[in-house]
């Protein structure tokens, strides 16, 4: 069913399974492997690492969903009501939601183009899905110290979808000895799709530089 996630770990297990199948192919066995996750994908990447701490050579996390920004979460009382209702109506789209394109895309022309994205889910979250995402982010928030792989964390300072403060906390608390945090002034949530071109190019350049540096170290060792 579109937009329904009964258990977040299933997404994580799918990533791990797909990675394992790709890594089994002879041409990929000796290559470095890096996790990449943006927003919700950042949560998937972190959970995959926490399940298999030594499987990857590093991770790039772009505005990772370690915590949903407080402004995007319904008030506490409404959240408790929705938790109760979800037991009986898990598929219902009852979760209040702000305009994500407006919150995530700073460039107005790119924001307008989101209406034509036919594969994006644009409706309200289903109850079960929203609560599973909330549960997952709370879980990750309490496991930041267990993150141990090389990290590149990228986040827009003006992001109101996922909380930049938690990316700062991840950078501070992660046990990784190799970790880097880059915050982009005035940037919104979608730093790779929704920013002016010069900002997108800057973010891509930071990613490529980090990958080149770490790949060269691994391939040369």
Query: At the fourth CATH level, what is the homologous superfamily?
Result: Alpha/Beta hydrolase fold, catalytic domain
Query: What share of the residues does DSSP label as strand, in percent?
Result: 5-15%
What is the CATH T-level topology?
A: Rossmann fold
Principal-axes geometry comes out as globular
Question: What is the highest CATH level, the class?
Answer: Alpha Beta
Structural class: alpha/beta
Give the second-level CATH assignment, the architecture.
Answer: 3-Layer(aba) Sandwich
Series of H and E elements: HEHEHHHHEHEH
Gyration radius over CA: 18 Å
> What is the number of strand segments?
4
Kindly describe this structure:
This protein is of the alpha/beta class. The protein has a single domain, classed as Alpha/Beta hydrolase fold, catalytic domain (Rossmann fold, 3-Layer(aba) Sandwich). Strands 1-2-3-4 form a 4-stranded parallel beta sheet, sandwiched between helices. Helix 1 packs across helix 2. The chain is globular, with a radius of gyration of 18 Å. The mean pLDDT is 85.
Key words describing this protein structure:
single chain; alpha/beta; Rossmann fold; Serine aminopeptidase S33 domain-containing protein; MAG_DAG_Lipase
Q: What is this entry, summarized?
A:
Residues 3-196 form the Serine aminopeptidase S33 domain. With 221 residues, the protein is an alpha/beta fold. It contains eight helices and four strands; from the N terminus they run H-E-H-E-H-H-H-H-E-H-E-H.
